[in-house]
Structure formats: structure tokens, C-alpha cells
Amino acid sequence: MRVEDLRPLGLFDGLTDDQLVELIEAGTEVPVEPGVDLFQEGEHADFWWVLIDGALDLVRHVGREDTVVGRMDTPGRWAGGFRAWDEHGVYLATARGVVAGRVLKLPAEVLRDRTQVWFPLGGHLIAGLYGTARSIESTARQRESLVTLGTLAAGLAHELNNPAAAATRSVDALEAACQMLLSSLSRLAQHEISAAQFSAVDALRREVEPAATALDPLALSDQEEALTTWLADRGVERDWVIASSLAAAGVDLAWCDRAADVLQGTALEPGLEWVASTFSVATLIADVKESTRRVSELVAAVRSYSQMDRASMQHVDVTEGLESTLVMLGHKLRDGITVVRDYGTGVPLIDAYPGELNQVWTNLIDNAVDAMNGGGTLRLGTRSDGDAVVVEVGDTGSGIPAAVAARAFEAFYTTKDVGKGTGLGLDIARRIVVDRHGGTIEIDSAATETVLRVRLPVRR
Questions:
Q1: Residue 354 to residues 34, 302, 329: CA-CA distances in angstroms?
Q2: Is there a single domain that holds both residue 361 and residue 434?
């Protein structure tokens, strides 16, 4: 390449021949061949590429296909070289040859040095512009994270809705059961049963409660049918209502015969209805307790996950953080995903920022679930290792190729389609683990399991 090749380019207006010679000597002439890539999207932008002649397409991977986002077909157009101003600078697109030609390939460090010597003000302006571009990209990532937060919130709402709806149904049924209980007591009073009779019926009721067992559906149906027939033969009008509650409580025909001996005549129906109502009320109260307990557990998990009303630096149980994260991602751990907990004994508390660590666990678990594509085993392990605690998140998915593992912790690097994942890259996970906690994070991709291994010091 000669000075005469660069002189016509408007990009180099104002440079002397000696300065152009410096660029030529420091750079390399690279041919442009149709269909051949000069550099790849996401790679470190270690070189500055200036088009001399020919044409290049700038291609970005969007979704599942490559999209042309621009074309370099005018001599003097340039791309890359971002590491001249930012050590984390990467190529924003892939340059693919379209028309045969050539480019000047100049190392980014040479571009930085020459910029500082020849026009320092311009260098400062370029650095500021690049910083603004990175800020815009970061804001876009933040927006993606907010969308992910909405997804987590929707999943949590689904988890809360199930026990809340169950509690609502039980309360409605409890109201009806209480009304039937009061009505049956009123009818017993009208029949003027004696105190001895009522005490005997209550004693029979208490016999049933401790022995109440859950029958299989077929046996329960047979028992309910037998009780319905027994009640109908004795003129009980609401036999279907009473029989279902008695059968669910485990009442048999022998018990009914004993109750009939105590409740003679017309007092039989209200007496048995009262007993059945007490069984129904006890069952529904247990359902409400279980549902509200589940809601309380979910709320506690959210508080643990978000670290609301807690100090930033705490003595942290990593197991608690992993469990609260599983609750938050419960909507993704449905059919096909088996969770194996391999928690070690005697794992000490560590000095850490639990809210930030929960973000790390969220990213690692979410990545593992996505890698398994709906089916596989998710393994969470903890163990003590000298003066540190090791946390492992393993999956039986498709594994991580060596080329991807080598760049997995780079800023803005992702292999997921738009809208997939948590929006939290492994680069941020690395910053939290390494920079904030003084630990390490590494990938161990074997044939049977891919493991993300985090090592955190017990004391800062």
C-alpha cells in the first residue's frame, strides 16, 4: 500500500505524507473477498479497519437470523478500533465482504497513540462519544432487565394466586358449613334431645376425628355410595350432603348404626348433619391454614430475595438465597425439570451483599433452566472449602462450547435471542462475585453436566 492510496480519502485530510507513511508502516493491507468475514460481532475491537476500495456488509445477529444493518461501500469508511478508547470495546457487527477490494488494518493501540499526538482534542471527543454509546447500550440492557423483572413478578403472581384462590374458595365453603352447623343445632333443639344424647353423639364424633384418613378416590366413592344408601333407607332427605362429609372423615356403617341408636326417630337427620358439619368445618379450616401458610412462605421468600429492610453487608446463608431464588423462578421449574439439592453440612455464614448474590443465583439458575430446554436435572450444591464457601449450579443441558465459555464473562456478550433470559449477563455476575466479594466464578462444562462454580470467602 502506498501514500497515493490514502491521499484521496477524505478521512485523512490534513495529514502529511509522513503521517500517512506512519499509518501504512504500522498497518496491514487486507484483501476484501466476497462472502469472507474480516471481523466478528462481539469480538474485541483490537483493530481499526479503513476501506480503500470494494464493499463490506455490516451484519448483526438478531433473533435467529443475520440482518444487514449497514454497508461500507465508500472509500474512507471505517469500523472498529474501539479498544483505542475502551478496553472493553467490541465490534458491534460482523464485516462480510461483498465486492472485492482491500482495507487498511491498523492496531487499536497505534490509533490511540497517533490520535493523542496528532489531534488530542479530537481523541477526547471520540472517547466521549464512545462513552455515550456505551451508556445508551447499558440503558437498553437496563430496559431488558425491567422486562425480566415484570416476568418474575408475573410468575410470583401466579404462585400467589393458587393458594390465595384456594383460601377464598375454602372461606366461602366455610361460611356455608357454619350455617349448616347452626341450622342443625337449632333443629336438634326443636327435637328436644337430652343432654345425655348430645354428649353421646359428641363422643362418637370425637372417635372419628383422630382416625380420619385419606382414602383413594375409588374407595371414597364406594364409601359415600354406601352411606347415601344407608341414610336414604332411614328417611334422611339431605343424604348426599351428609354422606360426602361423613365418608371424607372415614365414617363407616357400623359407626352410623351406633349413632342411630343414640339419635332415635326424627333427631337422626339433624344429629348426623351436625356431625357432618363439624367435619366439614375442621377440613376447611385446615385448608385455609395451609393456603395462608403457603402465602406467608412466598412473601418470606420474596423478602429474602429482595433483602427488603436489611443492611447491605450481612452474615449470609447461601442456601437461603438459593432457596428464595428457586421460589422466584418457580414458574420455570415445572414439568420436566428436576431440582436436586446437594447442600453440604456445616457450611458457614459468609460476609456478603445478599441482594447482589441473589441476582447472581437468578442468572445462573435461569441460564441452566434455559440450557435444558424444558427437561433435565438442575443441581444446586454448597460446600465448605477452607476459608471459603463454594456454590455450584449444574445442569444436564446441551453444554457450553469452549469458544462460548472463553467469552462468557465479557461485557454485553450473550448467545440468547432477543427477549430471552434475565437481562443480567455473566459479566455482571463476575463483577458481583469477583469485584464486590473477592471471590471467583468459573465454568466447568463436562459431557454429563455443565457447572457454574462460585467461590466466596467467608470473611471479607
A1: 52, 13, 17
A2: yes
Q: Residues, the chain, total? A: 460
Instruction: Say yes or no: 110 and 196 in one domain.
Output: no
- Domain membership of residue 147 (yes or no) is no
Residue 145 CB contacts under 8 Å (≥ 6 apart), including other chains: 422, 423, 424
Residues 170 and 114 in one domain: no
Same domain, yes or no, for 242 and 357? no
Collapse the DSSP code of 193 into the 3-class scheme (helix H, G, I; strand E, B; otherwise coil) and give the result. Answer: coil
Supply 142's cell numbers.
437496563
User: What confidence tens digit (pLDDT) does each residue in 285-313 have?
Assistant: 888 888 888 777 777 666 666 554 455 67
Give me the pLDDT at residue 417, please.
55
Residue 57's Cβ-count burial label (10 Å; 0-12, 13-18, 19+) is: buried
Query: Has residue 305 been placed in a domain?
Result: no
Do residues 332 and 368 touch, judged by C-beta distance below 8 A?
no
Residue numbers of the domain that contains 428: 313-457
* C-alpha separations of 346 from 29, 76, 248, 386 in Å: 62, 65, 44, 12
Residue where a domain stops, chosen among 70, 92, 118: 118
pLDDT at 51: 94
Tell me how crowded residue 39 is: count the other CB atoms within 10 A of its CB.
Answer: 21
